[in-house]
Amino acid sequence: MRYRTLGRTGLRVSEMFLGTMTFGTDWGWGAPLDECRKLYTAFVEAGGNVIDTADKYTEGESERIVGELIKQDRDRMVVATKYTLSSDGTDPNASGNHRKNLTRAIESSLTRLATDRIDLLWVHIWDPATPIEETMRALDDAVRAGKILYVGISDTPAWVISRANTLADWRGWTPFAGVQLPYSLVQRDAERELLPMAEAMGLSVAAWSPLARGVLSGKFTRSTPTTQHTRVRAEDIDERELAIARTVDAVADELGASSSQVALAWLRAGRPNLHVVLGARRLEQLTDNLGAAELELPEDAIRRLDEASAIELGFPADFISSMGGFTYGPVGERVDFTDRA
Known about the structure:
Elements: E1 3-5, E2 12-14, E3 16-19, H1 33-45, E4 50-52, H2 61-69, E5 78-83, H3 99-113, E6 118-123, H4 132-144, E7 148-154, H5 158-171, E8 176-182, H6 194-201, E9 204-208, H7 239-255, H8 259-268, E10 274-279, H9 283-290, H10 299-309, H11 317-322, H12 324-328
Protein name: Aryl-alcohol dehydrogenase-like predicted oxidoreductase
Keywords: Oxidoreductase
Pfam families: Aldo_ket_red
């Protein structure tokens, strides 16, 4: 596995992250400790060094398991967790991105993880009720206190992230180094605003649900179902998703790879700032997915997958593109514009 720096920081992170929403059985479908240990070991042996959890995953059990697993090689691992989601449905301040919840969440996560610092703390989701200035200043204070080292944000509009990092730059606060979002052949809407924003601002992208809840694993399109874990029912999948999955299957058969490996390799192709978040419940799933790190898709395969899953960017991107001649006049076709994004 290869490594890249996280955003505009010097932190070296593996091209794949190990997602741990499946760690723990509290939610009824996750993996017990012994299986989690196998997953963690396989990931580390493959060269992975980022383990991604959240305080809400399996109601805190995931963080406790991660804390147990990293004890022997804490300094080698980049431990990432998240905060925002409610820890007490009766307390209005036990959720959100305000300073009080951040302070509580950090201390609770440090206890469950049995560590003295969090390497990467993600804001789990945008909280419109909390001014972004409060969140950024509170995060910066936690960095200065040594409680956390780097910060990122998940599931948030591009304009909010842009504003947050602009404020951080102006005021000398710690900026977001990465953004976490859902991205796959089935769900490409991040290409409209979030991915261009991340590229322009130098942010790393952590793509969660890269197999679209198991749809792209071949589970629903091959005659012999795979062992890929999914909580999705066949009746919940539409024809577009199935058509994309069949294209993935066809490419996989031609290359002698698994469908999951092809879907994951497509995400990596031509996206140097993108990291795939691998989530698995069984060792064989993770082992197969890790094989995508060695798979380079031919240009024709990438083109076929692009075409099968293409989306309309919509306004304003499509409108701006269509107005080139009107905007720049006939001479615009003879101007080599520099990309200043």
